[in-house]
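Sample pair:
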Amino acid sequence: MTQGSGIPGPRNALTDVAGLLVGHHHERDADAELGSGRATGCTVILAEHGATAAVDVRGGGPGTRETDLLDPSHSVQTVDAVLLTGGSAYGLAAADGVMRWLEERGRGIPMDTAGHVVPIVPGAVIFDLPVGDWAVRPTADHGYLAADAARAEVRRGSVGAGVGARAGILKGGVGTASIVLGSGPAEGATVAALVVANPVGSVFDPATGLPWGVSAHAAAEWGLRVPDAADLAAALDLGSKGTVLNTTIGVVATDAPLSKAACRRVAVAGHDGLARAIRPAHSPLDGDTLFALSTGTHDLPAPASPVPAAFPPDLPVLDAVCAAAADVVTRAIVDAVLTATAVAGIPGYRDLFPSAFEA
């Protein structure tokens, strides 16, 4: 599926960016219900050799950890991992386990000649406590196990931090997407996103039933068709019952070498993609947070023309990466919606719109 000025990477996933791995750990009872059973988890993005990082928080109710140090004016330039977790503020405890996993392997900021390190692990949470037992949420052990499970192959849907996610009236989850850029200042660079979709807003168009990020003329590219009127009417009726869950969090990354300030612009651009796929977005009840990472592992082509001295030298590359960032975030959210399966009675997209998948 061609996207803009490039094509999806070989996995169409965040790990198409060299140097990044993704791991999930979750607890999920087959009979979990709203208010009982186990349905929570976390997802860890490991930067094998560190990554330049920044963040942009747009929601009115965020739950975050170590985001202040990602300000471009602050001293720490790279991170070792990013935690995306369920459990609301309680779930931030999972970061302790990620730090322990990294410390055991000597990964972090070197502090002395004795080998002591301090791993840098920013994180963000979704509010999923009403799905399953309120008291069951990620712990440090969950974070450790998610880091230990990090691989290049990325599982999608109702896994990791997406187990308890809800996207409006639908089951939310983990989605991912990538693009390898075509000709231009960032030729050959990969831009990718991984998102945990758990918004207050709707993820499908009430006029068509298609995900907001999929237009009617592009539905076939996603293996979809416009749902029939009966499916749409049933979904809209269910929507009148409302939801209390909120927050979409994620990571957008590139292998193009970017500064910390440039990564901040990538995170900002990623929110444009979030707003295309979720309506409304960035509400007072959401904690929408996107991290941006640059591994710097891709060698860029020589600039076609010099950049004016008044602008940063990586501006043309940054412009191309930002445009792609919005695209991959939108696609990652659609991927999360289409791959999520029912948990605790929250229906997946396929459950509500079976006609969208009929030949």
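The mean pLDDT is 92.
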